[in-house]
Amino acid sequence: MSASEARVKEVHVAVAVIVRDGRVLIARRPDHVHQGGLLEFPGGKVEPGESVQAALVREIAEETSLRVPEASLEPVIGIRHDYGDKRVFLDVWETRAAEGEAKGCEGQPVEWLSPEQLRDEDFPAANRPIIRALRLPRQLAITGEETDQDQTVARLLAGLEVARPALVVLRAPNISAQAYRELAAKAVPVCERAGTALIVHGGPEVFRATSGARGLHLPWREAAGLTARPVPADAWLGVSCHDRQEIDQAMAIGADYITLGPVLPTESHPGAPTLGWPAFADLASEAGLPVFALGGLSPGDLREALQRGGQGIAGIRFWWPQS
Fold first, then answer.
1. Is 320:155 a contact under the CB 8 Å cutoff?
2. Which of 225, 291, 317 is nearest to 77 (CA)?
3. Between β-strands 74-82 and 236-241, what pairing exists: parallel, antiparallel or unpaired?
4. Which helix (H) or strand (E) holds 150?
5. If you count DSSP H runs as helices and E runs as strands, how many of each does the chain have, helices first?
6. Separation CA 191–CA 212 (nearest Å)
């Protein structure tokens, strides 16, 4: 870090995602302030000696007149962003228990918008990961490995009927590229009928070859060699990561989310090294994009993942039908 960089102090900003009836409270920044005219989530600077939760309760009341029980706040994501002239740490928390009617107490327009109405270009650049976090589910479903295509499709259909996941990663690493393309072509309409978005797994060519795929999940070996985002902005891009260097690469190529693990021991790889929750939390806090905990997890681990700064959990066992 240069001397000039060291003089730029990081500003700790508490950010509130206030959810009511599936919509999020959004305000417009005054024209005369930094990033003026853009949309923003309510919040403000954390004062010295003040907890982020206390700052949120205070800022929400001052800006919107809403009353928020401090205990209702749950962590969403932490984002560090360098604007060049200003560095900020956005400490993002969510509440679904705000009381009262929202209004712009400082003269700013406020409105309730669905996550699908939030557009990157309407917000400061640092807000992009928040928008992704709001659109992503808390559980990322991954398919299990079966012996043939028909069995995989049958299990997929059965799992969708019971679990109704929002996103499914179609992972089948032990079949040929041609067999995977055939499997993906069969899986897309099954997912579409269930209202589930199918994310293909592999390199960029897999996404290009799969009509109807809603995203691409890159194994680390595929992500390592890329220098730019390989899919359109309206498609999901995920990356399998295991350490800070891999997370940095995922961010550099514009990933929307990552999976990080293994967090706990897994049945498929007994005795293999694991991150553990403390290391997961450290890496997630610096990631700057939504992080799904992966490896040896069950739905009972979801709250732990959220408390540790994760988007949620990813895996097979919690939804994939067993033989």
1. yes
2. 291
3. unpaired
4. helix 149-163
5. 10, 15
6. 10
Tally of CB atoms within 10 A around 118:
20
Provide the pLDDT for residue 10. 87
> Residue 273 pLDDT more than 50?
yes
Residue 231 · residue 237 · CB < 8 Å: yes
Residues 175, 177, 179, 182, CA torsion sign: positive
- The owner of tokens 């920044």 is 29
> Helix or strand or coil: residue 34?
coil
Q: Nearest Cα to 317, choosing from 111, 159, 95?
A: 159
Query: Domains, the chain, ranges and CATH?
Result: 3-127 (3.90.79.10), 139-315 (3.20.20.70)
Nearest alpha-carbon partner for 115 in 191, 199, 20? 20
d(CA 101, CA 278): 39
How far apart are alpha carbons 92 and 59 in whole angstroms?
A: 13
Q: Model confidence over 93-132: pLDDT tens digits? A: 999 999 999 999 988 899 999 999 999 999 988 888 999 9
**Other CB atoms within 10 A of residue 49 CB:** 6
| Distance from C-alpha of 175 to C-alpha of 181, rounded to nearest angstrom | 10
